[in-house]
């Protein structure tokens, strides 16, 4: 896993929240996948992205928010949704195709 944080003062609370979010994403990721998380403080907002690269699939999300916690929450939710859909597609390919159609 590669984690980069730019322009954010990581106090204990923020660091703990970041660790919990990245751990949850990593646990939901495919085995042996590479996880990259980047968070950056801009002038009046936060920007971030999550990339997960596995041997069979690539997942990514890019988000913006007004707070550090909101940004991490958005990134976590969107990447976990992608991972869940991927898992459902692998386990139940016919059902997933019917739902999309």
Describe the protein in words.
With 101 residues, this protein is an alpha+beta fold. The protein has a single domain, classed as Double Stranded RNA Binding Domain (2-Layer Sandwich), CATH 3.30.160.100. 49% of the residues lie in helices and 29% in strands. It has three helices and four strands, in the order βαβββαα. A four-stranded mixed sheet has the order 1-2-3-4, covered by helices on one side. A hairpin with a 4-residue loop joins strand 2 and strand 3. Helix 1 packs parallel to helix 2. The longest helix is centred in the C-terminal third of the chain and has 24 residues. The mean pLDDT is 93.
Computed over alpha carbons, the radius of gyration is 15 Å
Shape: elongated
Can you give the helix content as a percent range?
40-55%
Number of spatially distinct domains: 1
Give the termini distance in whole angstroms.
35 Å
The tally of strands reads 4
CATH fold call: Double Stranded RNA Binding Domain
> Which sheet architecture does the biggest sheet show?
4 strands, mixed
Order of helical and strand elements: EHEEEHH
The spatial strand order of the largest sheet comes to: 1-2-3-4
By DSSP (H or I, 4+ residues per run), the number of helices equals: 3
């Amino acid at each position: 896993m590669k984690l980069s944080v730019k322009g954010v003062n990581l106090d204990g609370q923020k660091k703990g929240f970041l660790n919990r979010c990245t751990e949850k994403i990593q646990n939901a990721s495919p085995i042996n996948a590479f996880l990259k998380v980047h968070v950056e403080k801009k002038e009046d907002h936060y920007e971030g992205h999550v990339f997960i690269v596995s041997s069979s699939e690539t997942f990514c999300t890019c988000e913006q928010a007004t707070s550090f916690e909101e940004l991490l929450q958005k990134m976590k939710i969107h990447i976990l949704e992608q991972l869940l859909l991927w898992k459902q597609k692998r386990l139940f390919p016919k059902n997933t195709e019917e739902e999309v159609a």
